[in-house]
Amino acid sequence: MKSLNVSPAAPPRTVAAAALGCEQMSIVVIGHVDHGKSTVVGRLLADTGTLPQGKLENVQEQCRRNSKPFEYAFLLDALKDEQSQGITIDSARCFFRSAKREYAIIDAPGHLEFLKNMVTGAARAEAGILVIEAREGVQENSRRHGYLASLLGIRKMVVCINKMDLVGYERHAFESIRSEYAAFLEHVGIRPKSFIPAAAREGDNIVQRSAQMTWYDGPTVLEALDGFAKDALPVENRCACPCRTFTNSPSAATTAGSWPGGLKRDQCGRATQSSSCRPASARR
Questions:
Q1: Backbone angles phi, psi at 276, to 5 degrees
Q2: Same-domain status, 149 and 253
Q3: Which of 166, 215, 220 has its CA nearest to residue 194?
Q4: Mutual angle of helices 140-151 and 171-187, in 10-degree steps
Q5: Quick one: CA torsion of 105, 182, 140, 151, rounded to 10 degrees?
Q6: Spatial contact of 3 and 104, defined as CB atoms under 8 Å apart
Q7: Would you state the pLDDT for residue 219?
Q8: Cα(280)–Cα(240) distance, rounded to whole angstroms?
Q9: Among 8, 56, 125, 165, whose Cα sits 20 to 30 Å from the Cα of 283?
Q10: 132, 32 contact by CB (below 8 A)
Q11: Are strands 24-31 and 253-259 parallel, antiparallel or unpaired?
């Protein structure tokens, strides 16, 4: 996972937030490919004033020089392959603050080929934003990511119906997707806090309330995040170890991954809480 230096000082949250006495929460942004996940995150960074001075203007200038239209997603796509292809490959982590707390935002890839990167990022999250494009509606990875979030124990969820501008901000398009996807999430044990119609590129209902969707009276994405209650560390009831690689040899089969948190016990039954992202391996 790559950490992006997009906040004014961007120190590790375990140091900076603890020193300031701030509440912290990790949020993963998931969903089908090209539904606007990185744009949602870029808008959160820009509209909360989190970006360093001149960062937005620099990216806009680079786009002008290369004759490319500016996208807020470019604030997140730091790898060269991501910038050239316009996709997210690895999970990116960045930080921003609201009036209530500090957030670590994990922007997870939506391509099926990078599913293990999505799982690794989501395993570190306490809550999630699941993004669905209004024009395409619920897609394969919309369901897959929702199911995996359920398996990873993520129950705090906001569903952002993005790119409402592509359907003329019509309420019917929003309600249709909400009805279909709410039924699916109910089946996997997730009840979202909110379904939010949004147009991240235009800034509608991300941080600022939209003037285009006066029929919607619910929270913005930022307001919904701030509405989540912070739980105590779930060391007893959630222990996730996403596997990144699998090696099969004549002597043994080994899986290797990271242990982002939770409680583990040794052969004598002694319990220890693992630190974030400690390498771990296990024999099958």
A1: -65, 130
A2: no
A3: 220
A4: 40
A5: 60
A6: no
A7: 96
A8: 11
A9: 125
A10: yes
A11: unpaired
| 259's tokens | 């242990």
What's the pLDDT tens digit per position in 241-269?
Answer: 556 566 766 766 666 655 555 555 555 55
Whole-structure pTM value: 0.72
Same structural domain, 97 and 127 = yes
pLDDT classification of 171: cutoffs 50, 70, 90: very high
CA 206, chain centre distance (Å): 14
Neighbours of 275 (CB within 10 A): 10
Do 139 and 38 belong together in one domain?
yes
The sheet with strand 253-259 has its strands ordered as: 243-248, 253-259, 278-283
Residue 90 lies in a domain: yes
268 shares a domain with 146: no
Overall domain count for the chain: 2
Give domain status of residue 253, yes or no. Answer: yes
Whether residue 282 contacts residue 246, with contact meaning beta carbons closer than 8 Å, is answered with no
* The two structure tokens encoding residue 101: 């707390």
What are φ and ψ of residue 191, in 5° steps? -120, 100
Cα 257 to Cα 116, 241, 244, 260, distances in angstroms: 10, 7, 5, 10
Domain of 263, in residue numbers: 243-283
- Burial profile 59-98: b = 16 or more Cβ within 10 angstroms, e = fewer: beeeeeeeeeeebbbbbbbbeeebeeeebbbbbbbbbbbb
CA neighbours closer than 13 Å in the CB half-sphere of residue 179: 6
How many whole angstroms separate alpha carbon 37 and alpha carbon 164? Answer: 14
CATH of residue 94's domain is 3.40.50.300
pLDDT in tens, 72-93: 877 765 433 434 444 443 445 6
